[in-house]
Amino acid sequence: MSSPDPQSPTPANDSITPVEVVPQEEERESVDQPAKVMRIGNMVKQLLEEARQAPLDEPSRARLKEIYETSLKELGESVSPDLKDELQRLALPFDGHQVPSESELRVAQAQLVGWLEGLFHGIQATLFAQQMAAQNQLQEMRRRSLPAGSEDAPARPGTYL
C-alpha cells in the first residue's frame, strides 16, 4: 500500500493553519549589578551635595567631570542595553577637554541622580508587582487545595489500602 502524498490535501491537512512566529521582546530593562548601581548612585548623590555646598576651583571641577564620566561608564556596564542607551541619550557628555563650570557640573549630576532615582523607583514598583502576583498565586492555590480536615469528623473504621 502506498503512503499518501504529503502535498495532497487531506481532511487533516486542511484543518491545519500556519502559525506565525512572533519574536519575543529582545531585551527587557534590567539591572545586572544592582549593588554596584546603588553604590554609584549614592556616590553621585553625595558628590552633588558636596558640589552645592562648596565653591569649586578648576582642579576640583576637572576631577568631578572625570568622576561623572567614569560613573556613566560604570553604570552603562551594570544595566541592560536599553537602559544603557537611555542613559547615554539623557546624560550628554561635556564639551571636549574644557573644564565644565560649577553650574554645568551641578546640572549634569542632578540629572544623573534624577535618572538613578527613577531607576530605583522602577525597581521598587517591579518588586511590588512581583510580590502582589506571588501573593495572588498563593491565594489561588490555597483556594483550589483540598479542604482542611475537621476535628469532629466521624471515625471511620476499617483499613484503607
Q: How would you characterize this protein structure?
A:
With 161 residues, the chain is mainly α. The protein has a domain at 29-138. Helices cover 61% and strands 0% of the residues. It is built from 5 helices and no strands. The protein has helices at residues 11-14, 34-53, 58-78, 81-90, 102-144. α2 runs antiparallel to α3. The model is unreliable at 6-27 (pLDDT under 50).
Features:
161 residues; rod-shaped; mainly alpha; 61% helix; single chain; 5 helices; 0% strand
What would a concise description of this structure say?
This protein is mainly alpha-helical and 161 residues long.
Output the radius of gyration: 30 Å
* Strand runs, count: 0
Report the helical percentage.
55-70%
Q: Which structural class should the secondary elements be placed in? A: mainly alpha
